[in-house]
Amino acid sequence: MKENVSKHKTAGVVETQYYTFAYPPDGLELESGARLGPVTLAYETYGTLNENRSNAILALHALSGDAHAAGFHEGEKEPGWWDNMIGPGKAFDTDKYFIICSNVLGGCKGSTGPSSVNPETGRPYGLDFPIITIKDMVNAQHNLIDHLGVNRLLSVTGGSMGGMQALQWVVSYPERVRSVIPIATTANHSPQQIAFNEVGRQAIMADPNWNDGNYYGRELPAKGLGVARMVGHITYMSDVSMNDKFGRRFRSNAKPFKFSPEFEVEGYLQYRGDNFIKRFDPNSYLYITKAIDYFDLANGKGMHELLKGIMSRFLIIAFKSDWLYPAYQSQEIARACKLAGVEAIYCELNSAYGHDAFLVEVEEQSRLIKHFLRSVTRGLNQA
Known about the structure:
- By secondary structure, this protein is an alpha/beta fold.
- About 35% of the residues lie in helices and about 15% in strands.
- It folds into 2 domains: about 270 residues, Rossmann fold, CATH 3.40.50; about 100 residues, Rna Polymerase Sigma Factor, Chain: A (Orthogonal Bundle).
- Helix 1 crosses helix 2, helix 3 runs antiparallel to helix 4 and helix 3 runs antiparallel to helix 7.
């Protein structure tokens, strides 16, 4: 069920904040061995950190997300990307919890990425930006959590790429995470998932305006990025949701027997592609999709061996119609938890929305998450 969003039920008016760290000469050591610095992370917080700093939850965004997860920016009409889940009385209740969301390393919405100025040259990094991984994103976030004075997170959560980060958090910093809620995600990318990302990358790099990543101050590789986004949106929906939303309907201004977008679904994809160009950096798309493809939580080993000894509790959520991150990948995570003796709840929800379900299916997710967080908090209070 998709809920209507109203301002009086949101986290209110919020501002993006910025934290800069890892100044040269040390910088932030990356998984590749390279060092990057200084590093800035854009972040937002919602709710109030309690006196003993035990109610903090880190919410992590997917590929094209940013730090603006909930509430409204001054003068803007659109709320944050997870506003239906974060706010007073919602799944991540800001009357009870202190929610943190940051734009990932490599992003383009305030955090250091390929569009940022390279202090050594005074120009945008472009392809001089080092290759990054999900683990690098998490290590950067770890610095932010330290800065905010949170010793142990009540929970870490996210859908899609956000779920990958949540899983990496509990492996990299198990002592800092009481619980984890990975949603519609995987512990490693399948060949098909890598293939879809590669099509998007090739579309961007084939655009003559890409210019080997040196397009800043010039015309953007807009057509390539638009095609990449169109491919992505196809994978986010399901056959059922596309049929329900578009069917084989023609657009009202369609010109029959022309290579123009005659069908409603064609017009929708072009609209999504055109809008994406206005808010996302093509090079960030290349770097972040590559980080997702590199992600392999167990690094080729048995995942249950990796999870042994971890005390964090898991709530794993998947959706039956999600064919981009099919339910079997979440089941593998749940199975590894059971083999490792880690407390885990697996929930597979019916939804016609495909992968997008984690953003729009509010009612069932909220019920599960509220109950789970109450249980985690109760266990904390009884400890």
